[in-house]
Design goal:
It contains two helices and two strands. The chain is α+β, with helices and mostly antiparallel strands. It has a two-stranded parallel ribbon. The longest helix has 13 residues. The protein is elongated.
């Protein structure tokens, strides 16, 4: 059932009154357990703000996958 025109206008006005929230895209790092990716993680941990991250690292995602060998 559609909303009456007056209600639709009020809902639209309420949406316009809210400030726009921009979400920061997370930083994703693939960790291959090598020297380069490990050094990069250590740099992020040492000074996250200098690398554009949140101080609590809430926007950092580290991905590691072990595929292994089949015996």
């Amino acid at each position: 059932m559609p909303l009456p025109a007056r209600t639709r206008t009020a809902v639209h006005a309420a949406r316009l009154a809210r400030p726009a929230v921009r979400r920061k895209r997370p930083t994703v790092l693939t960790w291959g357990l090598g020297a380069d990716s490990t050094a990069e993680i250590l740099m992020f941990l040492n000074d996250p703000v200098a690398h554009g991250l949140e101080p609590d690292l809430s926007d950092l995602v580290i991905v590691h996958a072990v595929t292994g060998d089949v015996l």
